[in-house]
Automatic annotation (TrEMBL):
InterPro entries: FAD-bd_oxidored_4_C, FAD-bd_PCMH, FAD-bd_PCMH-like_sf, FAD-bd_PCMH_sub1, FAD-bd_PCMH_sub2, FAD-linked_Oxase-like_C, FAD-oxidored/transferase_4, Oxid_FAD_bind_N. Belongs to the FAD-binding oxidoreductase/transferase type 4 family. It comes from the Bacteria. It holds the Pfam family FAD_binding_4. PROSITE patterns: FAD_PCMH (PS51387). The keyword Secreted does not apply. Residues 39-220 form the FAD-binding PCMH-type domain. Keywords: FAD, Flavoprotein. This is FAD-binding protein.
Length: 475
């Protein structure tokens, strides 16, 4: 690794102010590795700007010296999207110090929020204002708004409110040349040419660095009902989903699937997580209904649909949350899935989507194919089944060396992806492409689609300095 040209280093220090530039190896270490410890990168330095202006000046200086920039939020990417490569020729720009919720407007139902606010802090601020930010992901305590938007995060409430993309009204971003692009309009209707803000959502930091956003909020629910249900399999889960959807589709706020094996990992490896059902089941559903109206009608709806589903043999057991604490305990069982799998050993994540009707066949075929590929492999599917998004995760067999397992990740990913392709799905439903899955892009998005993405990238970032090595495979 070479060091920064002294003139650039001095200019960056000046632009970023005290504590704004980290160059010490131990200070930088946590920013150079991803949450899953799959990637270990290097960088000249780590910048922590406290404002859009400081951030823009840091990017401008990098552009002038042709130093690549790696934007980073809470560093929770599942695909190495915020980790620099191993050359050391990069500046990581971390948004965590830009962490103000600037404004919440109860008439517009909007929130103006800086990139470094964690998703949880943004949700809490909306709740305090009597509103709701309807985006929820397992890593929300660390994930920051800038990264959540750059990756178009999905999560538990997509089934009702859409992905991050659907919540963005306005955006401010620093372009690869250091210019600030101000798209901070809080308009429901604005039909004036290309919707440039949407170009940044899901671009994984390859077109610019998001610094501020205006998000659409929703009324805070006055009643919420959650139930944990024991079902036979994914087919049973989908039948239950249809049962709710046929009666009151707008009430479904979350509909999550968990296989028996994945739930068992949570139950055994996560302290304070305990299954409230009398017996373990082959699979589970966590369903949550919400309404901005109070009263008992939601509870009645939940009981009516579950009662009928029980009579129809769609579920064998169900527990309704009797308190907020119990509802949160149900969610703990779901949200600790990633952590439990991490504790169980090395894992390969296949974050796929297929049409709802194809999910049972997908799980059956992919399970058989993976078990054939690596005998003893632990197949632990779970996820946002109401969106057709299954985390078809694979945990190393007990006793196998974790590195030897990970060395075969492409074999496993390709085996699963081939089945996904036959069923008309996508190889990445919500985690993005990052550096882990960029090798799949030509096979999946090749031809005119990848070509157009490359031309957009080339037009916005002709020097290729923004988040190199992400989305696009090396040519
Ligand atoms: C989740 O929904 O919990 C994460 O996206 C999943 C994962 O670990 O694959
Ligand atoms: Zn997920």
């Amino acid at each position: 690794m070479t060091s920064l040209p002294p003139a650039l280093l001095d200019a960056l220090k000046k632009a970023l102010g005290p504590g704004g530039l980290l160059t010490d190896a131990s200070d930088m270490a946590s920013y150079l590795t991803d949450w899953r410890s799959l990637f270990h990168g290097k960088a000249f330095a780590v910048a922590r700007p406290g404002s859009t202006e400081a951030c823009a000046e840091a990017v401008r200086l990098c552009a002038e010296h042709k130093v690549p920039v790696v934007p980073q939020g809470g560093n929770t990417s599942m695909v190495g999207g915020a980790t620099p490569d191993e050359t050391g020729h990069a500046l990581v720009i971390v948004t965590s110090r830009m962490n103000k919720v600037r404004e919440i407007d109860p008439i517009d139902n909007t929130m103006v929020v800086e990139a470094g606010v964690t998703l949880k802090a943004a949700q809490d601020a909306a709740t305090r204002a009597g509103l709701m930010l309807p985006l929820s992901i397992s890593s929300e305590g660390s994930a920051e708004i800038g990264g959540v938007l750059a990756t178009n995060a999905g999560g538990n409430n997509t089934v009702r409110y859409g992905n991050a993309r659907e919540l963005v009204l306005g955006l401010e971003a620093v372009l690869p040349n250091g210019q600030v692009l101000n798209l901070m309009r809080r308009l429901r209707k604005d039909n004036t040419g290309y919707a440039l803000r949407q170009l940044f959502v899901g671009s994984e930091g390859t077109l610019g660095l998001i610094t501020t956003a205006i998000l659409q909020l929703q009324p805070k629910p006055k009643s919420i009902e959650a139930a944990l249900c024991a079902v036979e399999d994914a087919k049973g889960a989908l039948a239950l989903f249809s049962a709710f959807r046929n009666v009151e589709p707008s009430a479904i706020q979350a509909f999550e699937f968990m296989s028996g094996l994945s739930m068992n990992l949570v139950n055994t490896l996560i302290p304070d997580a305990s299954l409230p059902l009398s017996e373990p089941a082959p699979a589970y559903v966590l369903v949550e209904l919400a309404s901005p109206r109070g009263g008992n009608s939601l509870r009645e709806l939940m009981e009516e649909v579950l009662g009928k589903a029980f009579e129809d043999g769609l579920l064998s057991d169900a527990v309704l949350a009797e308190s907020e604490a119990q509802r949160l305990a149900f969610w703990k069982l779901r949200e600790e899935h990633a952590e439990a799998q991490k504790r169980a050993g090395a894992s390969v994540k296949n974050d796929v989507s297929v049409p709802l009707s194809a999910i049972p066949s997908f799980i059956e075929r992919a399970t058989a194919a993976c078990e054939k590929l690596i005998p003893g492999i632990r197949v632990v599917p779970f996820g946002h089944i109401g969106d057709g998004n299954i985390h078809f995760n694979l945990v190393q067999p007990d006793g196998m060396d974790g590195q030897a397992f990970l060395a075969r990740d492409h074999e496993m990913m390709d085996t699963v992806a081939n089945i996904v392709r036959e069923l008309g799905g996508s190889f990445s439903a919500e985690h993005g492409v990052g550096q882990l899955k960029s090798y799949m892009m030509p096979g999946w998005r090749g031809g005119a689609e990848l070509d157009m993405m490359r031309r957009i990238k080339g037009a916005v970032d002709p020097e290729g300095i923004m988040n190199p090595g992400k989305i696009f495979p090396a040519v």
